[in-house]
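pinned: reference chain
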Amino acid sequence: MNEKQQHQDLLRMRQLLNDPQSDPAEIADCYIRLIGEQLQALAATGYERAGRGVVEIDLRGIDLRHATGHVPIEYCLSEEADEEWPDGISEVIDNYDPQREVVAILLQDSGPLVYVLEDQR
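pinned: its structure tokens
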């Protein structure tokens, strides 16, 4: 991500976090964009070490508006699937291109969101 886009995303995130009416899914989308490069690096390392999988971000019980500290993020193989992963995720994992894409699952109280991010490095 270029610096200008990162700056715009950071400003948007601040705006979303300061608005109590912000849609949690929009906050999640912005969050994923902001940490996309870190997710890509984690996925590349995980794939090299263990094979196909997803980056799992667990925001259950965490409101990003008030969060401090660590958000659990880890690389998980498909056979380590959490019961809260969405139906059909196995097909996504089987079909993504690990050389160009990252599959991320964001677990939140309102349900999981799945992202397929293209590598921007």
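why pinned: The first strand starts at residue 53 and ends at 58. The chain has a mean pLDDT of 88.
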